[in-house]
Amino acid sequence: DTAVSQTPKYLVTQMGNDKSIKCEQNLGHDTMYWYKQDSKKFLKIMFSYNNKELIINETVPNRFSPKSPDKAHLNLHINSLELGDSAVYFCASSQERGRGSYNEQFFGPGTRLTVL
Amino acid sequence: GESVGLHLPTLSVQEGDNSIINCAYSNSASDYFIWYKQESGKGPQFIIDIRSNMDKRQGQRVTVLLNKTVKHLSLQIAATQPGDSAVYFCAEAPWTGNQFYFGTGTSLTVIP
Predict the structure, then answer these.
(1) A interface mutation test: which of B38, B54, B98, B107 has the most A CBs within 10 A?
(2) Are B43 and A108 a contacting pair at CB < 8 A?
(3) Which contiguous run of DSSP H or E holds residue B12?
(4) Peptide bond preceding A8: is omega within 30 degrees of 0, i.e. cis?
(5) Would you tell me which of A44, A81, A92, B34 could form a disulfide with A105, CB atoms 3.0–4.6 Å apart?
(6) B33 to chain A: nearest residue by CA?
């Protein structure tokens, strides 16, 4: 199936640990994103990569480090996890948007991170 | 930064009725708007989009209306069905860049 996939779907961990979430898209898209959705369903962009290069980096603690080994993958590594990191993290992808053109973002199923 | 908000956090409608979900945005420079549907346990799914040079766009059972004067966006769902129950997000994007700004979301419940 063509899609955006994320692993794991659920992640429960202790404060202070380091964890990674993986994302893969087989849609041939050039741009990938990470979003954080809080308990009130607010969806906020964290990072955006285009062809393996970082193009958007919102105000995110440097404990969060995205890594893109190739344009089909964008992994999210989180160091020293804190209680406030508990949220659902969504990966998304889109075709590169040139000036004057717009492309929808396709979202993965999400990873629910719970920090205890 | 931009701010995209929704007027109503929850909405309940009877099956078969029409639903209207509203959204206000604050950045007058935004020129692309999207509605997403998020079902429980899933990622957001694209429904319909509209560019700022339009004021109305129709899809299958859905219509998006854009009022740039008051910076207001709405999603109309005709003959609402139980499968329409979900959280609906509006999002805006500026002229440049791939960055979408999402609103808080409205939870739509369809009563059989």
Answers:
(1) B98
(2) yes
(3) strand B10-14
(4) yes
(5) A92
(6) A102
Which chain A residues contact residue B43 at CB under 8 A?
Answer: 4, 90, 92, 107-110
Token pair, residue A68, equals 């893109």
Q: What confidence tens digit (pLDDT) does each residue in A59-81 have?
A: 789 999 999 999 899 999 999 99
Measure Cα distances from A7 to A20, A44, A73, A85 in Å: 9, 20, 12, 17
Q: What does the pLDDT read at residue A71? A: 87
Instruction: Closest CB to B42: pick one of A35, A97, A109.
Output: A109
Q: Is A46 a residue whose pLDDT tops 70? A: yes
Q: Sorting pLDDT into bands at 50, 70 and 90, what band is B30?
A: confident
Would the CB atoms of B89 and A43 count as touching at under 8 Å? yes
